[in-house]
Amino acid sequence: MKRLYKRWMHSWEERMTSRDTNRVVRPFAWGHEWTRNFPGADRFAWGESFEEQFDYFTQLNRHIVVHSDEFFSYDKPTDFRLEQRRVQVFFTGSGEAPKDPDETGTYLRFTSPHPSPFPENNSFNARWFPTRGKRAIIVLPQWNADGISHNGFARIFNPMGISVLRMSAPYHDIRRPADLQRADYAVSANVGRTIHAARQGITDIRAALDWLQGEGYRHFAILGTSLGSCYAFIASAHDERLRINVFNHASTYFGDVVWTGQSTRHVRAGIEAVNLDAEGLRQIWLSVSPMAFFDKFSRWPKKSLMIYGKYDLTFLPEFSLQIAEEFRRRKLDTLIKELPCGHYSLGETPYKYMDAWHISRFLRRAFGAHMQTQHAV
């Protein structure tokens, strides 16, 4: 039965990862121009040969990891504002797009601290679901999430007294440049642009915390799914305010996921064309890999929940188990939950209800313990 279930689950995952026909194989590019303003980038020489260029990115990534507090620093935005607008789906699939909901939402907007050359992408966007109290959670969905994905968490968390800020990652939904159908620029065969997108997303999270704090919120959590879990982990490693964390799908190295995941086969195709291998890819994307920041994540007491799928073909379980072991080895306050599903099937019935139950149960307890600690201090 176990073998049959595994075969069925893998077949289902393969169908879901192959249903969209608008995934584009983009040519490999170093994207050196995206790194010119990175702190410390001027220390390393940009050469003409492939080997010299690889060496540049290897050294730059190592430098960023050591000096990551500087890399993920930012100037606090000065144009925080709430706006009302019609809710839009911003569909990313290749089938027939669903209709936009007949509703109006409240959105937090501000200028992203580390802007890109794309004006649409430079305005932070997050739907705001407030409720009473001083507790708030930032929800960051998966790569290529549409504009309404994960909004449903507000219906769960608001009755618990937790306000929800559902964030759009860089290049997603309203932040997506007009010539794109998907959020390709967030993860692509352009090395520098992918790092820049992660930096932008991580500092956007921290700036959103500034706004929440200014609104009187005092207890903060973050929920990241898939790519969102990568951004959430690194943001938490660099921001003391994020004491409660939920990592919905978690993996070790950014490059490992791109190299082995079914969802990123089109990205790998562009990379393989220049004969880069898995180890090389790990090195040139080290600075956006959760595994590189455990020392900094451990600086402050945090409560974390890590959920992974036993049959995940996008974030392979072997990588999730390595992350889980690192949490345990460091004796970090972390609850590990394995669900009998894969990456995409986590969003389907019945697994999405299992996921929501584990998350809501964890948040109720974690917020309660955190608030008791704060009152004691």
Indicate the topology.
Elements: H1 2-18, H2 50-66, H3 68-71, E1 81-86, E2 104-111, E3 123-129, E4 135-140, H4 153-157, E5 162-167, H5 191-214, E6 219-225, H6 227-237, E7 242-248, H7 254-260, H8 265-272, H9 278-284, H10 294-297, E8 303-309, H11 317-329, E9 333-339, H12 351-376
Parallel strand pairs: 4-5, 4-6, 6-7, 7-8, 8-9
Antiparallel strand pairs: 1-2, 2-3, 3-5
Describe what this molecule looks like in 3D.
The protein is of the alpha/beta class and 377 residues long. Helix content is 38%, strand content 16%. It has helices at residues 2-18, 50-66, 68-71, 153-157, 191-214, 227-237, 254-260, 265-272, 278-284, 294-297, 317-329, 351-376; strands at residues 81-86, 104-111, 123-129, 135-140, 162-167, 219-225, 242-248, 303-309, 333-339. A nine-stranded mixed β-sheet has the order 1-2-3-5-4-6-7-8-9, sandwiched between helices. Helix 6 links the parallel strand 6 (219-225) and strand 7 (242-248). Helix 5 packs across helix 6 (227-237) and helix 7 (254-260) packs antiparallel against helix 9. The chain is globular, with a radius of gyration of 20 Å. The relative contact order is 0.14. The model has no long low-confidence stretch (mean pLDDT 96).
Distance between the termini: 52 Å
Biggest sheet features: 9 strands, mixed
On the 0 to 100 scale, the average pLDDT is 96
Q: Could you give the count of β-strands?
A: 9
Gross morphology? globular
Helix and strand succession?
Answer: HHHEEEEHEHEHEHHHHEHEH
Q: What are the low-pLDDT stretches, counting only 5+ consecutive residues below 50?
A: none
| Helix/strand structural class | alpha/beta
